[in-house]
């Protein structure tokens, strides 16, 4: 089932999410719905707070990035088919020189800005079978993971912008929270009770 994506301004997007256990209510159905919702919106990642659930779960599928012609064949192959579920994740290390990349977010449609992040991360998490992992990622995969991880920490990519950039996009953010935006996927707006 395609779920509405929570828009900028909803308090759930600013909450630090809670861990879940393997007996979380309708876990398999939730996972299926989240993937369907992400693909319907042409996203490469989706975190549970973006569908209104303050739980530490997000998913990533970087396959769409693999079609970028500016990447090497090796980078394209790495991104193609990288599909993971991260539950109760904790980034334990970030390293390297920060680099900028133009980011967007399904909860903040039509706004894209350069965000600086470190290129290498180590993350501990459990997968959809609640099997534990500790892995290191770099490049675009690390960036997508960091972006989704921020969601379960109650952080949005706009929080990482300079105060000048924030002032410049303030009106657009207000319009998003009021539902004054056209998108090709279902959204839930904090200032409107109706769903689109």
TrEMBL record:
InterPro entries: Peptide_deformylase, Peptide_deformylase_sf. It catalyses: N-terminal N-formyl-L-methionyl-[peptide] + H2O = N-terminal L-methionyl-[peptide] + formate. The active site is at 148. Fe cation binds at residues 105, 147, 151. Binds 1 Fe(2+) ion. Signal peptide: none annotated. Belongs to the polypeptide deformylase family. This is Peptide deformylase. It comes from Flaviramulus aquimarinus. The lineage of its organism: Bacteria, Pseudomonadati, Bacteroidota, Flavobacteriia, Flavobacteriales. The gene is def_2.
